[in-house]
Queue: 4 jobs
Job 1
Amino acid sequence: MTSSTKSIVFIGASTGVGLAALKHTLAAGHKCIALCRDPSKLTAIFPSGSTPNLKIIKGNAHDISTVSQCLQTDDGRIVDAIVTTIGSKPTGSGMSVEDPDICKKGAATILDALGQLRSTGITGNPHIIGCSTTGFSRFGRDIPFVMRPIYYLFVSVPGADKVVMEDRFAQSGESFTIIRPTHLVDGESKTAIRVGIEDPKTGPESKVIGYTISREDAGKWLAENLVLKIDAKYVNKNVTITY
């Protein structure tokens, strides 16, 4: 590894946006640590020995001891970046989720783990990247008008959880970026990705409203703009990405 190689933690990377971001980060040669409850989901994609830059740790994103383990590099410092894309499965009705506090608890655990590591003398200032959603900005509508009933019925519970996650990272004093993809779909697209930037305190700096973006394209954008390099205009901002 070269001195430019980064160490990145992925929490919730066994599917979706997180998995896509993990794949692109590994392909660029960086060292990745993936925390997941069921490692077999990742070992099926990355067989043992095939990806030496990947360490898979079994555990829960709300367990501070496990998260603390993930946040440390082999040479005894805090990792360069933390990517959290955790979410909860919908309930049978689809109008709620199995764990309506999964993101807020995950954010608290990350921040508490960083505090504990620093209290023992371990140093580092990671960039935290949290995956949220559109539809819940405090600065006006950020989704198409016709999508409002869908968000109200099916996204209000997980959306409220993600708002708390956003606030916890924004108020933590840590370097962060929140990405807010529009409605996530499968597949890839050659459609250009549009980007809007919102300051959590002062509101939109640029605004985009869109319908969808694929999980693969959202993960690739995350990796290219927030992990492989960090574009300064996205630091400490909420960033909407959409087609």
Note: The CA atoms of residues 40 and 151 lie 33 Å apart.
Job 2
Amino acid sequence: MSRYQNILVVIDAQQDDQPALRRAVYLNQRIGGKIKAYLPVYDFSYEMTTLLSPDERTSMRQGVISQRTEWIRQQAHAYIEAGVEIEIKVVWHNRPYEAIIHEVLQNNHDLVLKMAHQHDRLEAVIFTPTDWHLLRKCPCPVWMVKDQPWPQGGKALVAVNLASEEPHHNALNQKLIQETSVLAEMVNHTEVHLVGAYPITPINIAIELPDFDPSVYNDAIRGQHLVAMKALRQKFGIGEEFTHVAKGLPEEVIPDLASHLDAGVVVLGTIGRTGLSAAFLGNTAEQVIDHLRCDLLAIKPDDFVSPVTLPAQDE
């Protein structure tokens, strides 16, 4: 049984075309499983109708939900006619990201797909506040789908952290590669590439230490990263030609390589933390995401716990 057998697709209420649903069907036809098309809706004006009775307001809300349910059914009509099983669910909720995460928790969804809008002038992907909340807080992987066709022969680029000696980074690197490799094998034998970035020489060190040799420092850092990358690729049987170690900031190296390879998706890990910091992705991941021009698959560590929990009455 492979992963991604219980997919939650977040429907975009602002447009008729649904790239996330299209991508979900594409995955479903190759790996099986089930799809739920999900839309949280809310209109503050309905809550302001104080002249109406509670029953009338409830009836109006239900009318909106029924109308949107039928609209989604029309969006999915061609897929359903083709035999794809798609469950449709519309809920009334004023915080979309909370509604989505509640649905994930209640029904053990193992992948969320949501459309990411593209900025026409820059070709960069634009993330909404809901997108950011999901990337930071959703317990299962989140796939942000760019609203344009998958590139011909599109590759999967896995961003790995080669600099840290902390055990959780190594475990997350291995999880990213393993999950991407399994999925890629089932989906058109997609090529999987690994990328790691190493820092340039800190200018202040070069200035403050006259005997400091930047080239020796660069060679040493690059060597450490190459050794770490070799260990990773050998563990998973990935050819050297599919691994990339480059000098520079991750938020520059990773998007540039993704563009060069014409990658369909960049896979990266978002570090989970406990307590108040659990809501944050980490600066590096956020900056990388902000510069991407392709699909993004964000995966949490095994020990990640979402800061969003089910309401008491739903537990």
Note: The CA atoms of residues 131 and 222 lie 34 Å apart.
Job 3
Amino acid sequence: MKFVGNIKVSALNLVPIREGQSDKEAIEDMVSLAQELDSLNYERYWIAEHHNAPNLVSSATSLLIQHALEHTHRIKVGSGGIMLPNHAPLIVAEQFGTMETLFPDRVDLGLGRAPGTDMMTASALRRDQHNGVYEFPEEVEQLQTYFGPGNKQAYVRAYPAVGKNVPLYILGSSTDSAHLAARKGLPYVFAGHFAPQQMKEAMQIYKELFEPSDVLDQPYMIVCLNAIVAETDEEAEYLASTLAQVFIGIARGRMQPVQPPTNDLQALLTPREYEMAQQRFNDSLIGSEETVKEKLESFIEEYGDIDELMGISYIYDQDKQFESFKRLHNVIEKLNQ
């Protein structure tokens, strides 16, 4: 199969703490990765929002986005995403409008409808009793208004967001948000790295129901996948044992720091857990550059064309993580030839 098109490549970071690290060191690693991706001409670098997670430092997402913007030159930096049920749209618009003022044309606002945490924490975050999940479409519209021209706004305005047109992206891990992104004519980002089950259906819904808008005249599809690319398949699989431990830690309800890789993954997991990890590996881009290129070609053949691949990489050694993202960039370049 010969892919005809031009896929862009980007990255997502949850700002995890590696085993033995402090919070500050995890944030420093986040900045180092941003600088590395900037030098590799990655399209964008997104930071997720999670709360009450002792192994992640991504709770104050907008602060981390600004910090990354300050330490990079070209790459777009944004949210993957801001979980809108946790925030008043006015505050979000003010924050991202301020960042757009400081760093023009480099700020993205990815929006999710889930709270990004457990319900007790969500109650502590939100000003109401979880109505934000149901008000997501209306709140997206509010944000579009806040970032739009002043003559189309009411008395309450999100200065300095007025007229800044910060680009919005709808995030999804099921089919729900695919309908919304299509109806509003906005770019759609699917979280294939942790919820691949409905990915194919969601992508089809978005493409088939897409309505052109002032933002887009045709669908723009971003897919986020786990990506671990190394010199050989064997090395990539060894590095991916860290990813397996992340998966199983979540399944066990244990929020542990990112663990070093191991040559004996089966000794750490039950047979059922090992099977689950292998299944997740099948939904990920793990291997040498040639293997990952073949996997990506197969993905496109099965799921359809994508406009952008967003990689997320749980690798314990940061130099190996840099190398993986460099090799992923090489894969996309070869695919686009």
Note: The CA atoms of residues 107 and 211 lie 24 Å apart.
Job 4
Amino acid sequence: MHANTLFTLVSALALTVSAAPVAEAEVAAPVDKRAGACSSYTIINTRGTGEPQGQSLGFTTINRRLTAEVPGGKIYNTVYFADFSQNSALGTADIINKISSTLRTNPNECFILQGYSQGAAATVNAMQHITGPNFDAVKGAFLIGNPNHKAGLACNVDINGGTTTRNVNGLSVFLGSIPQNWVSKTLDVCAFGDGVCDTTHGVGINAVHLTYPSSTSSQRLGVEFAKKQLGA
């Protein structure tokens, strides 16, 4: 598969998305913020195979809404090749280093991790190396189309927040999966039939794997999950 295959297909899909706007979240009361809310946070965004350096199409709508609704947010786009070799080690290292370097200058910073496809694998691989205060600083991880999706984890949901992909495996689960101590602060979204994260009902990078950028339900899940984890 050519290195730009996923990006080309996702881009084409994004251009054909229905013009129907994403439903606006209900306006919450401007008081009674939960204790421990994050006043400053960084979203670490890790793109999928073939997407150019920058923010993944899987999260652009989520992050536009999130940073508009929750003050203090910044977006960091993980630096790595994201090429067809599927070697995401540089991405994993960059995620780890970004958290450590940020906390050295701002020890109260919060983080939300995001990963699409190969970017989800890079994020999962980083989790086992994020410990102590760094682990505490990461408030949530939101993954889509994760090849390291492991059957049976409580964090597994389908694209509608349901359980149709709770008990399926991704195509690279044998290389590692979400550590148990991360399950409670992770949402691992796998669309039914996505052959990357659901090998029971799909095969490889198929049309379903490319639906996340155009899915209003996936975007809703991403915004609601991050707001909850940030204490907003």
Note: The mean pLDDT is 87.
